[in-house]
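User: Hi! I'm a student and our assignment asks us to look at how structure tokens line up with a sequence. Could you show me two examples?

Assistant: Happy to help. In each example below, the sequence comes first and the structure tokens follow. Example one:
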Amino acid sequence: MKQISSRFSMAVHILSMITLDPIYSTGDRIARSINSNPVVIRRIMAQLKKAGYIETKPGVAGASLRVSPERITLLDIFQAVDSVEGNQLFNFHKDTDPNCSVGMNIESVLLPQLSNAQKVMEHELASVTLAQIVEQIRNQANVK
């Protein structure tokens, strides 16, 4: 099964680091923590900034949250960095054979199930906040 882009998990990682230690949450430090290229991290941070979740200042190390971690859900983060075309997580193949009973009906038959799966995923992501994720990280790492 094809995976959803890792931008989402990277964005949660970035926001968690900023929540825990904003002064030292530079693009380079975050990139080392994630084991990714700093350019990739800066692009994701730009998406988070555009969505209004973080603030960065030229020439100043670190980043800060613009929204309380209690008010940022995993769904918010997902939507900020993994834009879904037409708000549909699942895509359909195009130009099916209109003379084939499967080709002319597959989308209308399958769409309700896929839409339901997306709603369930979105509901689950909306039920978890960044604050809850950070608290779990603190508990597992004994970070105060």
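Example two works the same way, sequence first and then tokens:
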Amino acid sequence: MDRRTLITAGPVAMATVAAAPAVASSSKAPETAPALGLPGLGLPVIADGRLRNYVFVSLRLHIGGGKSLEEMRLKEAFFRDALVRAAHRTPFTVAGDWTRLDEGRMSAALVAAANSISGRGSVTRVEVLNQSPRRRGGMLGR
């Protein structure tokens, strides 16, 4: 609202504007489960025993019941480390494509690591937000 209009409207407009935030805060929005973001994690693409590319992924960890966001944020470095170690041990490479990783295997590995790091059920789901390869080209067979 324009300040000039508010001043000329007088006390009636002031009462209306003052009541608007109270009405907005009384309506309850559906509560969502807390989520922890892991941006910019570089994971290797290994094919035929050779490092072919890196894919930078952004992840969102959906936190399970009984855990707070602050509690899980303290363990973010452990989650990153566990995922990078798993990616080097058993690569998440998609056959025939050096520009993306297998989201299902990556999610399963991170949920399993989270169960051992912060307790069973601490991470219910892993959402892959973005995959950005270092080199855009590089299909197997090219």
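Here is something you could point out in your write-up. Residues 6 and 15 are 11 Å apart (CA to CA).
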